[in-house]
Amino acid sequence: MRFVEITKRYGDNVVFDHFSLEIPHQTILSVVGPSGEGKTTLLHMAAKLLEPDSGKVVKELSEEGPVSYLFQEPRLLEKSNVFSNVELALHKAYENKKERSEIALHYLDLVGLKESLSLYPAQLSGGMRQRVAIARSFAHPSNLMLLDEPFQSLDIRLRYDLISSFETLWKEAPKTTLFVTHDPKEALLLGDSVCCLGNPEKPKLLVKIDIPREARNISDATLLSYESQIVESLVND
């Protein structure tokens, strides 16, 4: 997916001015930046919820169609149990009930909720609720995934536990992914590349992470160096 020479204004506020950015097919691009610098605008353009004033968003043929959108809030159906929250999201794509059940069970098992299928959202911890949302996002048939700070409201231990769950699912079914976060560490752990916003005309920083995702450790000297570059980019005009 490519953002090609996009311009977007909100009144006098120019968020993007002939801005270009590419997300290579089946990779994860992490996007960080101060509030109001265009992170959500990029997500909305990728989802076709918003059009640029000029320029265009170009998707590969395999990236067209339904989009998986993972929000900060799990957005579960409170009157449906864990299993149903995932299975119900598959009705439009799969007519066969057995197939829907098998897919839902598969992804819930991968996020460690096989023993919690009959529980309702009110009975779940915050981390478990977000696991259901992650399983639902991957179960939903799509080739483009948009993440809007899905780990932000959780404590640090749960956050990295869920990042690990996400990595497991993504490795099994890679999708072109745009991951918005305020946390440089999250960005580095998940992204194949990290883009820092803050300049309407071009990324303030674009870093490619060559370390395999499964081998990354936030205390690694290379990642610490990348984190320092990201923080410097975010705090300096």
Plain-language structure description:
This protein has 237 residues and is an alpha/beta fold. It has one domain (22-50, 63-235): 3-Layer(aba) Sandwich (Rossmann fold), CATH 3.40.50. The chain contains seven helices and nine strands. A six-stranded mixed beta sheet has the order 5-6-7-3-8-9, with helices on both faces. A three-stranded antiparallel beta sheet has the order 2-1-4, with no helix packed on it. The radius of gyration is 18 Å and the shape is globular. The two termini are 28 Å apart.
Q: In percent terms, what proportion of residues is strand? A: 15-25%
- The helix fraction, in percent, is 25-40%
Low-confidence stretches: none
Q: Report the end-to-end length measured between terminal Cα atoms.
A: 28 Å
> What is the CATH architecture term?
3-Layer(aba) Sandwich
**Major β-sheet annotation:** 6 strands, mixed
Q: Kindly state the number of beta strands.
A: 9
Number of helices: 7
CATH homologous group name: P-loop containing nucleotide triphosphate hydrolases
Shape: globular
Strands of the widest sheet, in order across it, are 5-6-7-3-8-9
